[in-house]
Amino acid sequence: MRRLFPVTDETAAQASDGAPDARGADREWGLPELAEAYAYPAGGGPWLRANMVSTLDGAGQHEGRSQSISGDADMRIFGTLRALADVVVVGAETVRQEGYRPARARAEFAAARAAAGQGPAPVIAVVTASLDLDFSLPLFVSPLVPTLILTGAQAPPDRIAGARKAGARVVVAGDGAGVDPARAVAALAGLGHTRLLAEGGPRLLGQFVAAGVLDELCLTLSPLLVAGDAQRIAGGPSVKVPSRFELVSLLEEAGFLFGRYRRS
């Protein structure tokens, strides 16, 4: 485990003066270091991790978006996690609110992805029951790799046809209108996508938690207070028995804490 040393008055003063301290708090975590710290566990089975950001008072977003509570280091880790993943799983509401675009190829990770048998960029998989999406957006008409739509067997046929016409691949992962989380994981693994990354939103993460299929949570703790009634990082009905996760690593940069937790 990478450990974060306690912040004392002395180290805080050194950091404020721009001088390096014992923790290296004034330097950026480099991409090779982050790739090592967040490497997927070895093994052939699917591994579902989620990457979320939360403020000190528990808000998973501000004014409907997560970007405003993020920061440079968080975005660097965001890009690293994407570069390590086979597929990025995201809910339709988050696609609409965050203005999702296709994942891009990163030259810094090209060799590592090729060595791991991965394509140039991760696939984006959108979870949606209604398929109420703008299929004219770049996410669907001009991705580097075709976008996936995860939906249920009772999804609107005309919307399915529209998604396919736009170039998306539709995968049924539920008997009703919605998606069954366990079937979604299995369906993605069946397509060869075993390194899964969920980026939200809260409703989708809540479904993964409730279904017991979340293996890992990468949580950024943002040094902000926003008050209000913003959603937490996971929503929906509470689970009967809380899931226990263990801390694997903890990094710090610019006041942000980056925790990696695995299911115990």
Summarize the structure.
By secondary structure, the protein is an alpha/beta fold. It has helices at residues 9-16, 31-37, 72-84, 92-98, 110-115, 138-141, 157-165, 181-190, 202-211, and strands at 47-55, 87-91, 123-127, 148-151, 169-172, 195-198, 216-222, 245-253, 256-263. A nine-stranded mixed beta sheet has the order 5-4-3-2-6-1-7-9-8, sandwiched between helices.
Distance between the termini: 15 Å
Assembly state: single chain
The helix-and-strand class reads alpha/beta
Can you write the helix and strand succession as a string? HHEHEHHEHEHEHEHEEE
For the largest beta sheet, what order do the strands appear in spatially? 5-4-3-2-6-1-7-9-8
- Helix proportion range: 25-40%
Q: Largest beta sheet, briefly?
A: 9 strands, mixed
The number of E-state strands comes to 9
Task: Give the C-alpha Rg.
Answer: 19 Å
Q: Are there runs of 5+ residues with pLDDT below 50, and where?
A: 10-25
Overall body shape: globular
Proportion in β-strands: 15-25%
Count of helices? 9
Question: Average pLDDT value?
Answer: 89
Q: Topology, please?
A:
Blueprint: H1 9-16, H2 31-37, E1 47-55, H3 72-84, E2 87-91, H4 92-98, H5 110-115, E3 123-127, H6 138-141, E4 148-151, H7 157-165, E5 169-172, H8 181-190, E6 195-198, H9 202-211, E7 216-222, E8 245-253, E9 256-263
Describe the fold and architecture.
This protein is of the alpha/beta class and about 260 residues long. The chain is about 30% helix and about 20% strand. The chain contains nine helices and nine strands. The chain has a nine-stranded mixed beta sheet, with helices on both faces. Strand 4, helix 7 and strand 5 form a beta-alpha-beta unit. The radius of gyration is 19 Å and the shape is globular. The two termini are about 15 Å apart. About 5% of the residues have low confidence.
